[in-house]
């Protein structure tokens, strides 16, 4: 019944009336609707109509990966860490009007982060787990950066796989982890 719509059930009732009329049996449309509802295993037309009106709305919605919102006190001070050191790109920025807090999106590959100066968005010292295909290559890349603000190591025994942990200027922890499926 999940693919049945109310319109299709009404079409079936009309077809039933037409077929019965050819056999010399006349029935009201409301009776045809009730008969179709019974044939489809429901108590009456009202129940069938209620069930079929939800078709499509009960389908499981697609849910995409979440986007962490990290609290920073100053986007201007945080961006060099994310762009120059971690290699993220600035996708967009938003400010309701001059002088108000800034909200930006940065991304690298499939990783997307929001950085917010807004008081109610996130809390400093949050942690984000970011899966990577090759954490060792990322480690080498970060160590090769001139004037790198941090020189992290890799924890080969971290839960989830080898992990490179860096802390942004506001205490937010980014855990770049190579899951076993990527090894």
Q: CATH topology of the largest domain, what is it called?
A: 2,3-Dihydroxybiphenyl 1,2-Dioxygenase, domain 1
Shape: elongated
Helix-strand makeup class: alpha/beta
Listing every helix as H and every strand as E from the N terminus to the C terminus, the arrangement reads HHHEHEEEEHEEE
For the biggest β-sheet, the strand order reads 1-4-3-2
CATH class of the largest domain: Alpha Beta
Query: What is the radius of gyration?
Result: 29 Å
Instruction: Give the fraction of residues assigned to helices.
Output: 25-40%
CA(first)-CA(last) distance: 44 Å
Count of distinct strands: 8
Relative strand content = 15-25%
Number of distinct helices: 5
What CATH architecture of the largest domain would you give? Roll
Q: What is the domain total for the residues? A: 2
Please characterize this protein's 3D structure.
With 183 residues, this protein is α/β, with parallel strands linked by helices. It folds into two domains: 6-53, no CATH class; 69-182, 2,3-Dihydroxybiphenyl 1,2-Dioxygenase, domain 1 (Roll), CATH 3.10.180. Helices cover 31% and strands 21% of the residues. The chain is elongated. The model has no long low-confidence stretch (mean pLDDT 89).
Please name the defining characteristics of this protein:
single chain; 183 residues; alpha/beta; 2,3-Dihydroxybiphenyl 1,2-Dioxygenase, domain 1; four-stranded mixed β-sheet; 8 strands; 31% helix; 21% strand; elongated
């Amino acid at each position: 019944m999940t693919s049945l719509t109310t319109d299709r059930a009404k079409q079936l009732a009309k077809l039933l009336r037409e077929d019965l009329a050819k056999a010399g049996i006349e029935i009201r449309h409301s009776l045809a609707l009730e008969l179709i509802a019974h044939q489809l295993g429901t108590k009456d037309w009202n129940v069938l109509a209620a069930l079929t009106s939800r078709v499509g709305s009960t389908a499981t919605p697609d849910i995409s990966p979440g986007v962490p919102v990290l609290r920073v006190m100053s986007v201007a001070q945080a961006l060099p860490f994310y762009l120059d050191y971690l290699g993220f790109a600035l996708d967009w920025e938003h400010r309701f009007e001059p002088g108000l807090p800034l909200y930006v999106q940065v991304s690298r590959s499939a990783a997307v982060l929001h950085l917010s100066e807004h008081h109610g968005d996130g809390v400093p010292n949050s942690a984000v787990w970011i899966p990577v295909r090759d954490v060792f290559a990322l480690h080498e890349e970060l160590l090769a950066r001139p004037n790198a603000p941090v020189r992290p190591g890799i924890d080969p025994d971290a839960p989830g796989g080898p992990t490179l942990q860096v802390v942004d200027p506001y205490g937010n922890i980014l855990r770049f982890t190579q899951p076993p499926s990527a090894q």
